[in-house]
Amino acid sequence: xxxxxxxxxxxxxxxxxxxxxxxxxxxxxxxxxxxxxxxxxxxxxxxxxxxxxxxxxx
Length: 58
Prior knowledge:
By secondary structure, the protein is mainly α. The chain has 4 helices and no strands.
């Protein structure tokens, strides 16, 4: 969940790219754009970064 995404974001950039398929910088920009332009919001139990991380991973 959110701890997994936070761990990846705090960890080594190569591991992040291997798991998510993009760089940390690109992930952050994509998350921001999805919130601004796409209206993506934290749900009651799942943060935006977690939603995006799950989508990209699977």
